[in-house]
Amino acid sequence: VQVVESGGGLVQAGGSLKLSCVASGSSFGIDTMSWYRQAPGKQRELVASISSVGSANYADSVKGRFTISRDNAKSSVYLQMNSLKFEDTAVYYCYARVLVPTIERPRNTVDEWGQGTLVTVSS
Question: CA 56 from chain center: how many Å?
């Protein structure tokens, strides 16, 4: 499975940006898909996640500003980011929990990560 993000870039504070991620090569589907971010000198943190049936969760810092969505037919997840702030500057990573069932473990999953896309918000 290959996970590839796109859509990062430079945006002014108050602006919007939409990130996209596709997880290709899965034969059995994808469970949870998420967006994480890592700012310089900080630990990677969860931004938002969405289940296979569309149930979404957000970090408190982005609630009301970011929206996560997914298209299961395209094995894709998106992050619409509005009202961006300087502190949203980070490398954003896509995460996919890929279903890889075995006879012994029918619900076995593998964690897959993208390479990251840089979002820079200028103040």
Answer: 12
